[in-house]
Amino acid sequence: MRQVFSAFLFALLVGTLVFAGLGCMGEVQAQSASKKPAIPEFTVKYVNHPIHYPPVATTNPYTGETTITNPGGTYDHWVIEVTVKNQKFTSTKDSSGNWTQLFYTVGYKGRFEDEWQTQPGSPSSGYTPASKSDITVIELPSWFLSQVPNGGMIDIKVQALIGTQYSQGINMPWTTNWHTFQGEMGDWSNIQTLTINHDTITSTQPPSTSHDPSLQTPEATSGETNNQLEIQFDLD
Predict the structure, then answer these.
(1) What does the alpha-carbon distance between residue 143 and residue 100 come to, in Å, rounded to a whole number?
(2) What is the pLDDT of residue 114?
(3) Cβ contacts of 233 within 8 Å, gap of 6 or more
(4) Of 19, 30, 58, 46, which Cα lies nearest the Cα of 154?
């Protein structure tokens, strides 16, 4: 009788372990299959990156006299920076050596137009990979900013992608790289509207949006930077 009872307990224990293992395996598979990235959280900055030009001088080869041909100087260079808070993600490499990574793309347009542009300019240009720090900084093209008049408004949104980006060299009149992407594209973030002004920068507060907190990293902390005006949004 004791042997039968012991066998019953052993079978019950084995069955419990098997079901527990299947449950854990199912949970791991579900986490692996869930590759859609969370909606990005980001801030927008109108930042001055001054450009420094050193003086240029020439020396007379016969007298040794030095003449300043260009005094040089420092010139303002204002840009729009989009700073994305990186999601928790671990890159993996398959048997062919291809990496699955986290990428971002930024959409932007004039407030009163319908057509969006993206940075990078097209998927073939390659998406911006997430940095290894807490944030990834993406700069909008300077030619676009040069078209925005004082008081003009810019709509900005961000999308995250998880997958593999392939690069192939193409020989044209010049050599360039053509990128293709395979993976999962997340949903676009809410739109943040930035108003360009010579003296102040204002923005509209976007409505709150839901996101997956399990994929988010703690808020990055950084000191204030000289020559910049910062607009931050808390999408939580």
Answers:
(1) 32
(2) 94
(3) 41, 42, 43, 44, 192, 203, 205, 206
(4) 46
